[in-house]
Design a protein that fits this description.
The protein is α+β, with helices and mostly antiparallel strands. It is built from 9 helices and 6 strands, in the order E-E-H-H-H-E-E-H-H-H-H-E-E-H-H. The chain has a 4-stranded antiparallel β-sheet with strand order 3-4-5-6, with no helix packed on it. It has a two-stranded antiparallel ribbon with strand order 1-2. A hairpin with a 3-residue loop joins strand 1 and strand 2. Helix 2 packs antiparallel against helix 4, helix 3 runs antiparallel to helix 4 and helix 7 packs antiparallel against helix 8.
Amino acid sequence: MTLPKAIRVSQATGPRVTRAPHAFAFAARVGLAAALAAVCGCKPVGPNYQRPSYDAPDAYKEAGVTPPPAPKGGSWQSASPSDGMLKGKWWEVFNDPQLNQFEERIGTTNQSLHSALEAYFAARDQVKIARAAYSPTLAVNASASRNKVSYDRPLNNITHTNYRDFVADGQANWEPDFWGQIRRTVEGANAAAQASNASMANVALSLQSELAEDYFNLRGLDLQKQLLDRNIQELADQLDLTIRRRKGGIGTDADVALAQTQLDTTKAQLIDVGVARAEYEHAIGTIAEYKLNKFSIAPEPLSLDPDKTPPQIPVGLPSQLLERRPDIAQAERQAAQANAQIGVAISAFYPNINLSGSGGYESAHAGTWFDGPSALWSLGAQASELLIDGGKRRAVTQQARDQLESSAANYKNVVFLAFNEVEDKLSDLRILQEEENAQRTAVEDALHSLEISNKRYKGGATDYLEVLTAETTLIQNQRTEATLRSRRYASSVELIRALGGGWDVTQIPK
């Protein structure tokens, strides 16, 4: 008798049953191909994302603003006129080497930025976690045991109560993404990671601009200190003159007392400037992550030279603002994430389909563990559908839609506030420039008034009170001019921050 090919006879072990070698593989390939075709042909449920619309104005109301003059020994650099936008390291437009040094440290040392970076990495890992659901899961296990069953158990029809069991098998499970739940989850995770990246860019921009503002406020205080040092020297000369006039019988003790009071008051103002400067120095050292006990910034006053007229900050077109601010990009990506969640929620209305398979070897003897007759396998599919949930799925879906509306409204509000901020900073620069011009005239007038009062005092035409009043007025006006100069620098930084610095959405990883 000729045995079928599926049966092989061994003189040592007797008949041994094996399976046709390609049947299982062929069935698996056919099933996998059919499932993949079905998945590829299914459009994911839920709405496709549409970016919330916002009509940007054609032009900024405040335009043609000239930034403040450059620091001592430097000048502004013109941005490329081809696109009218700042690029990359925006702080380099101030052409201040020390500022550049501080700004460069932020990216490598600041812990707030490092925290934001790690948060982005975590969000990026979540995308990989979501994508893992595309693939089937495969598990393997092996076991060997010696067992004894009760001989007195009911319906016992075995002669042996002791046995060995050797098992080596594997299980595979796969839930095809028929309805797009996994695709929408990946889409949402990717949008969340992009939002996290934009948030990191926003943290970096905030730190960079804060440092630059502190730096120019510190330089403005250096300017005030320079002016006060000069005033103190002049007041000391005035006090010496008043004392000599009193000795000569021309001046009075009251004149000397007034001169001494003015000198001491100005010295106190100088000390107060030092307090404020130290705080700005500490703030800069903290942002740039220096050890404060060894950190100091040498004085370098801002220039008050009115002849220096640097170019304007390139503001670009209002429509470009939507692509240049990281907080706008973050809000837009959060809207995309919320939109993807609608698809995830809708997919819960459809049945869950799971494909599974297992195979391996099991034997009572180690010597025959991996022989043909010891093989086992199974293939299966399961579909389940939730029929009644008390309206939970509808509520979850509506919640997702409401969250999308909330995210879209938040995006539009962020855009609206961004345009408002740009207009504010443009008007600040324009008005501060006008105010500084007027203040410069006031300083010139106060200086002229002091010269007249000094001549009158030296000629005996008036007492020292008139000189004191003129000196006080001059000092106040000079400090105001110095404050306006530093405010213009700070406003320039704030405008750059409002425009998004040198960032744009192309820097978001895809």
